[in-house]
Write a structure and sequence with these properties.
Structural class: alpha+beta
Mean pLDDT: 77
Number of strands: 11
Radius of gyration: 39 Å
Strand content: 5-15%
Number of helices: 15
Helix content: 40-55%
CATH class of one domain: Alpha Beta
CATH topology of one domain: Cytidine Deaminase, domain 2
CATH architecture of one domain: 3-Layer(aba) Sandwich
Largest sheet: 3 strands, antiparallel
Order of helices and strands: HHEEHHEEEEEEHHEHEHHEHHHHHH
Shape: flat
Length: 528
């Protein structure tokens, strides 16, 4: 009567569970067939476990960012928000990494992941998420677009859960309710891999193939003599004698047994199955130990491809599920994200070139680069730099009166003696023409900035403005800060001693002084 229990017509003696059968004496590995191949059984295949681990650990290791987005695209982190705190501590026995790793592993292995919303405070904020094994959760359809969940408890009872009481993370789904189980879809390939793995284990356990054969020139006299000689030879090459040099007598010859075509096909089967499992989960082969086609020139690109084509869809699935379940649909200013910048950083040389280009092109500030390298910001490095030789095509050079309110231009007191109109352009014997052009462009830009500063700020703030302006002059002209400060002091003294000079005359004076400063010619104080 025990023969019929679990017996299968195609299994033969291997499924005979009677006292005289071989079922209980067979090795432990999977022999369940295709119909009952579960996710846990599929993990016996190293490629499956490696793919699931790569996805689960990759998602769990990324930081979770919750931010409020302004109309201009600016982002403000919301670290006091209840959802941010929930992702850091989802329940009483797991941290954020463990919970996200477990949920991602469930979804990758079974197509669905469930967490019971077990804690809600008086403000309607979720305080605890209890993960559930997908095999314990069932779905009951209540209509075409409505359903509820059933939890199979350990004591055999069932607990109904409303749709809003369950956080459900699903993979690719045929109906929008449950995701496909990838193990079920690929059960033939996975079962083939497990069978090949079991075959290899039994082969090496039993040592079924000898390392070589010994050829006798004639024949042994009888079977007893052959048996005695074989046992003696094996005793000299086993246990502590393994690996010692064998001495053959009476014309005996040793012949190695090399790899046969069957052995080569067995190895190729392993490689093919490993590649198929990697393609099932869209994981880069080198991440699961398949370095056959990986080289030093393409390994970095494969890692980037893994982030873009494998992890990114999973991260978007997480982000959309969290926003759909926990954020107010009316508030479209709050978003969550798992930034992958840390996975795309590259080496130190690549990061340095990236920051260098961003700072010089003006779309990144120096403090932003410091923050990306986990360094504290420094005062004065929050302003973007603008290249001297690059302006938008549609931008005209600003005029002295551009951007000012209507009416007469504010005028500074003219000096007692104004030699400005008689001032000649700066010339230097043997100076390079290109150097003079660059100096003139830099001087013009700084002079226009100084003009705007004086027009828009009251007189009592000029000391503080020029103190800050000195650093700008030093950076723009690449001169020592002491020389830039002397220039700013001279400008302030000129304003104090020349009560009748106009803005245009003052800007012309500043431009000439800056040209001389740029090419290394010291100027005399305005008092002279």
């Amino acid at each position: 009567m025990f023969v019929s229990i679990g017996a299968q017509s195609d299994g033969g003696d291997a499924y005979d569970r009677s006292p005289w059968g071989n079922f209980y004496f067979e090795p432990i590995p999977y022999r369940g067939g295709l119909s009952n191949l579960s996710g846990d059984a599929a993990l016996q295949l190293i490629a499956v476990y490696a793919c699931v681990r790569v996805i689960a650990e990759g998602i769990a290791s990324l930081p979770f960012v919750l931010y409020s987005q302004a109309a201009d695209g600016g982002k403000t982190p919301l670290r006091k928000h209840w959802l941010y705190k929930l992702m850091k501590r989802p329940n009483r026995f797991q941290n954020g990494f463990e919970w996200r790793e477990m949920m991602s592993g469930h979804c990758a292995l079974r197509g669905n992941a469930f967490s019971l919303i077990s804690g809600v405070n008086s403000a309607g904020e979720v305080t605890e998420l209890i993960p559930l094994h997908p095999d314990r959760v069932g779905v009951q359809m209540l209509g075409d677009t409505n359903w509820r969940y059933w939890i199979h408890n350990h004591d055999g009872t069932k607990t109904p859960i409303a749709r809003g009481g369950m956080f459900h993370l699903r993979g690719l789904s045929p109906d929008g309710v449950l995701g496909y189980n990838p193990i079920t879809l690929a059960r033939k390939a996975i079962a083939t891999g497990i069978a090949a793995q079991d075959y290899g284990m039994r082969f090496f356990q039993n040592d079924a193939r000898p390392g070589g054969v010994i050829e006798h020139p004639t024949n042994f006299k009888d079977d007893e003599q052959r048996t005695v000689w074989r046992e003696r030879c094996q005793s000299q090459q086993t246990d502590e004698n393994r690996g010692k040099v064998a001495v053959l007598e009476y014309g005996l010859k040793w012949h190695d047994v090399g790899m046969t075509n069957d052995d080569a096909q067995f190895i190729d089967t392993h490689k093919m199955l490993r590649s198929q499992i990697a393609s099932l989960y869209r994981v880069a082969p080198h991440l699961i130990g398949d370095l056959e086609k990986a080289t030093f020139s393409n390994i970095e690109q494969q890692s980037i491809d893994h982030v873009i084509h494998c992890l990114t869809p999973w991260l978007v699935r997480w982000e959309e599920a969290l926003e759909w379940n926990f954020l107010d649909p009316e508030d479209d200013t709050i978003d969550c994200e798992f930034p992958t910048r840390s996975l795309m950083r590259g080496d130190a040389a690549a990061r340095s070139a990236y920051y260098h280009g961003g700072i010089l092109d003006g779309w990144m500030t120096r403090n932003e680069a410091r923050l990306l390298e986990n360094m504290n910001p420094i005062d004065g490095l929050d302003e973007p730099l603008r290249p001297l030789n690059e302006v938008p095509n549609d931008q005209e050079p600003t005029t002295p009166t551009e951007g000012l309110p209507p009416g007469p231009s504010p005028a500074l007191p003219p000096p007692k003696e104004t030699p400005i109109n008689k001032r000649k352009p700066v010339k230097q014997q043997g100076a390079d023409t290109r150097l003079l052009a660059l100096a003139a462009a830099s001087a013009d830009r700084i002079a226009r900035k100084e003009e705007t500063m004086l027009r828009n700020r009251p007189d009592e703030e000029r000391g503080a403005l020029y103190a800050k302006h000195a650093q700008f002059v030093a950076n723009a002209l690449c001169v020592p800060i002491a020389r830039a400060e002397r220039y700013c002091v001279a400008q302030q003294e000129f304003l104090a001693m020349s009560p009748h000079v106009t803005i245009d005359e003052f800007v012309e004076l500043a431009r000439c002084r800056l040209e001389r400063l740029a090419i290394g010619i010291e100027f005399q104080e305005a008092a002279a």
